[in-house]
Amino acid sequence: MIGGNITAILQKKTVGSADPIGECEITWSDALTLTGWLDLLTGSAKHTEYSAKLEESTHVFLCDWQSLGELTSENARLLIGGTVYEVTLIDDPVGLHRQLEIYLKYAGGQ
Q1: For 54-106, how does the pLDDT look when each residue is reduced to its tens digit (9 = 90+)?
Q2: What is the pLDDT of residue 78?
């Protein structure tokens, strides 16, 4: 058992029908609550030519394995303490069903 010190909410994206100008409404709903460990993989902060500061970081969230059903990196995001992370990969190492490694990209506190 991995345990952990962080509680995260894995959310599923639902795309609604298009409005009159062709934009689809996207809604996020809570799908699973996970307990695990969050670790930084890479990170940097830089300034653009317009003096805007950009934070870029990638992370991995490790937790005990559980079935995710229809959740994939294409339709999921992770919330940790109000911070939104884009899911880039969900891995079940070697297919052993012992842990999940969820690779993330920082997307801001939206």
Answers
A1: 678 899 999 999 999 999 999 999 999 989 999 999 999 999 999 999 999 99
A2: 96
Query: What DSSP line would sit under the chain, residue for residue?
Result: ----SEEEEEEEEEEEEE-TTSPEEEEEEEEEEEEEEEEEEEEEEEE-TTS-EEEEEEEEEEEE----TT--TTSEEEEETTEEEEEEEEE-GGG-SSEEEEEEEEEE--
Whether residue 55 lies inside any domain: the answer is: yes
Q: What's the CA gap between 28 and 83, in Å, rounded?
A: 14
Residue % of the chain over a pLDDT of 90: 67
Q: Which token pair is 78?
A: 């992770």
**Token pair 């005990």 is at which residue?**
64
Domain count, the chain: 1
pTM for the model: 0.84
68 part of a folded domain: yes
**Cα 84 to Cα 87, 93, 95, 107, 109, distances in angstroms:** 10, 24, 27, 5, 5
